Amino acid sequence: GRGPPASEAKEEEEASGTAERAALGVCGTDYEAFCSHWYQVDARRKQEERVHSSWVWMEKLQAMCTATCSEFDAMLGHLDRLERQRQEVTLKTSRLHQQCEDRIAEQEKL
Fold first, then answer.
1. What are phi and psi of 4, to 5 degrees?
2. Tell me: the pLDDT tens digits for 58-82?
3. Cα–Cα distance, 9 to 108 (Å, whole number)
4. Helical residues (DSSP H) of 1-110, grouped into ranges
5. Contact assessment for residue 4 and residue 12, using Cβ atoms and an 8 Å cutoff
6. pTM of the complete model
7. What is the CA radius of gyration of the chain?
């Protein structure tokens, strides 16, 4: 009536402990596999984020460069117009100077 003898109880306890350890071992292995997989997925995600942010940065840089080139083109257009105007002023000034010298020369003849 009091249950199994002490040696049988000990054997059952050891068998039960072995089964629990085996179950934990499987779970532990599954847990380790899950963690390993999770860390790989997370590392891949972080790498993809870095690549994506690099592309975003490059696209912003390209947009800035395009805008800067457009501004430079506009400035060069203004400089070309200014150069043409300067040449016109120089030509008119030279003609006016020549006309003045011609008038002075005529006055001296008189």
1. -70, 155
2. 999 999 999 999 999 999 999 999 9
3. 143
4. 6-109
5. yes
6. 0.47
7. 46
